[in-house]
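Hi R.,

Here are the chain sequences for the assembly we discussed:
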Amino acid sequence: MTGKRTGAAARIVRLPRGRPAAAGDRGAAIYAALRRAIIEQALKPGEKLPEDAIGASFGVSRTIVRNALHQLAAEGLVEMRRNRGARVARPRWEEAGDIFDIRRALERLVIARLAGRLTPEQVARLKEHADREDAARGGSEPHSVRLATEFHVLLAEMTGSEVLARYVGEAAWRCGLTLTLYSRPHSSECGVHEHREIIAALEAGDEARAVAVMDGHLSAVVSRALIDPPGRSRDLSEILRRYAQE
Amino acid sequence: MTGKRTGAAARIVRLPRGRPAAAGDRGAAIYAALRRAIIEQALKPGEKLPEDAIGASFGVSRTIVRNALHQLAAEGLVEMRRNRGARVARPRWEEAGDIFDIRRALERLVIARLAGRLTPEQVARLKEHADREDAARGGSEPHSVRLATEFHVLLAEMTGSEVLARYVGEAAWRCGLTLTLYSRPHSSECGVHEHREIIAALEAGDEARAVAVMDGHLSAVVSRALIDPPGRSRDLSEILRRYAQE
DNA sequence: TGGGATTTGTTCGTATGTATT
DNA sequence: GAATACATACGAACAAATCCC
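And here is the predicted structure of the full complex:
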């Protein structure tokens, strides 16, 4: 009942000093780090994300972490239940079809806007990305998934439409999360050649073919899905340490 | 590293806060109120949304308001610039076409899922909504816009897909905001009959016609757009008082 | 099922950054 | 352009809810 502070340390504590005005948006860094960690599966779907632990990992208070978690929740990468904290999102199997349909619809828009309108620089940039995807083959699965998703986000950004890019990005990352949950390992590698086909069709201005390839591409990805339940609890701060820099 | 304490540590006497700590999610109420106020144009695009003033209006601290504002920002109804606070979003004219394209793509998905699959109860519910839209004719323009948008959200919810409903809702409300910015007054009334056509086509299972009507409907709405710059500063707490209840 | 440990929700003081005169 | 006024960012304490024996 009378749990209020007893006379503990009533004297004036030393004033806060020294901090070199760190007032930069520390939250953005935490957000980015958590995002990468989730996308690359370092943090597995369903894993708990306690505010204290994360804050301690990054040396900030819970306030900052809270903001980052809320933002991730708004994007669907994190689930928050009232008074029960945050977890890495674990999209339901029934949702998988929905989100892929949405993504396909949005990417059709992207194709429609880009077909025959890519600059040589953009084409070069896309091909370069595909090269990187090839180079990553045989490497870690999460890294490949990330690159594959980034290809689609890159396309969306080339439309010049900020909202379109945001919607496609959100849907694509959520699809990636779903894939890591339900798809069989190494199932994503097959996509690189299709990416090159899409580039070629766009370059040629063949919108119909580009749409067809893209649709087939996305359908193929989702149809490869298999059930594969997630693992559980490792050491959180160890994981986050690797995502703290950059 | 963070073991510093600020001067407030010496405070012992607790504040005579009478309110029993407001256990409910007060933030949700603020969010909803602000949302309605924005959508019905009681808060005009570009209008400043200071945390203190809003908090004072609702009798909560800035923290709660902050959360609500962040959520609204994530949905695109509010713009937040670092250290400069929140304003009602003012979508750019160039974005208008983008967001309407996105909305159209998403609503095609909705139609495809509902055509020929509506239960009699759902049809009745939709017709009832159209009746309300008719009844609102001649009333306030913002109210009509809200009802018109809610018709589309209602359709999306009937698909049973939570994500699809969320995406459609977000896009639709953002379109509504854009319309209030750029469209000529009373331009939205024309939509009610088209809504009834959509219901009929869906009931008949005629997906192609439903899509055609929906596309035409959305295109018509956007093509009626005209430039009409927003007004400026009135009394914030007066406005919010009307949106506090419910 | 109850009580304690842990975690989240909320408040408010202070520092810092932006706008204004 | 410097000083001032004000709003936001962040941290720590308190209060309530949940979790876990």
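Confidence is low (pLDDT under 50) at residues 1-22, 227-233 of chain A. Chain A is about 60% helix and 5% strand.

Let me know if anything looks off.

Best,
T.
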